[in-house]
Design goal:
D-Maltodextrin-Binding Protein, domain 2; 2 domains; alpha/beta; 3-stranded parallel β-sheet; 280 residues; 6-stranded mixed β-sheet; single chain
């Protein structure tokens, strides 16, 4: 049986210490948001979106409603902070690409490892960040990049990532390979391509890298992680542009960070990232 991984102290502390990338409308407090009676998509319940499949360690067994996995637990904690117990939470399937596009949403907020970026903020609202992100490169033992120690060693590799993600942008901006990156609809397809030898490596966020290489690949290997640029990358909850509850959701996230809930949830569900070298 695969070992159960424990979160590194560095991640626990970083969640509470990093500067918050909050939207400009985030001026509410939890007290000023009417508990359990927000202007939600469906009155009386809070609708939360995420992709299908929903991957570990963010979710467990592709069942967002079971409260297991980091993002499922965070979603329920935010809902509770806003006055919606688990019985008042409704989960909605929302493909990643549709979440970050402008337009009316079928959810009140989405949680799906969506990084806050200036470009995306033109189309949607974000809460303050609930998790600090590093990107990482994985491969399989025996691949052409299995012994890579630096970014320069990756220049000739065929590397892939999920479409529309900051993982894909990391390939373009940080690795700058001579071969065009491979793009996939989701990480399941990307992982199979890696197993089949169609790509040499796959870029994902660091906790996902540990999860895939430990639990889903027989010969998985983490090449390393990419040092964050100035201004840490963060995952944020996604809301429709101009949502009337953006400030309340942000206030809830801020409260959960301040009282230690986010760190506690990370400690329970996320993997130890201390062993991934930084690629330079």
């Amino acid at each position: 049986m695969k070992k159960v991984l424990a979160i590194a102290i560095a991640i626990l502390t970083s969640i509470s210490s990093v500067a918050i990338l909050a939207p400009s409308s985030a001026n509410a407090t939890v007290a000023s948001c009417k508990s359990g009676a927000l202007a939600t998509v469906k009155s009386g319940v809070i609708s939360i979106g995420t992709d299908d499949p929903a991957y570990g360690p963010w979710f467990d067994s592709n069942k967002p409603a079971n409260g297991k996995g980091f993002e499922s637990a965070v979603a329920y904690a935010v809902a509770k902070q806003l006055g919606y117990p688990s019985a008042k939470v409704k989960w909605v399937k929302a493909p990643f690409n549709t979440v970050i596009q402008p337009g009316k949403k079928s959810f009140d907020f989405d949680i799906n490892e969506v990084s806050i970026t200036p470009e995306r903020k033109k189309a949607v609202d974000f809460s303050s960040g609930y998790y600090d992100v590093a990107q990482a490169l994985i491969t399989t033992k025996g691949s052409k990049i299995a012994s890579a120690k630096s970014i320069a060693d990756l220049k000739g590799a065929k590397i892939g990532a999920e479409v529309g993600t900051t993982s894909y942008q990391t390939i373009i901006d940080r690795i700058k390979p001579t071969q065009a990156p491979a793009v996939f609809d989701n990480n399941d397809v990307a992982k199979q391509s890696l197993i089949n030898g169609q790509i040499d490596g796959l870029v994902v966020d660091l906790p996902t890298a540990f999860y895939i290489t430990d639990a889903e690949l027989d010969n998985g290997l983490i090449i390393g992680q990419f040092a964050p640029k100035a201004g840490a990358e963060q995952f944020g909850l996604v809301l429709s542009k101009g949502s009337p509850i953006t400030s309340c959701v942000t206030a809830a996230v801020n409260a959960l960070r301040k009282n230690g809930t986010l760190s506690a949830i990370a400690g329970k569900w996320l993997s130890n990232t201390a062993g991934a070298p930084v690629l330079k």
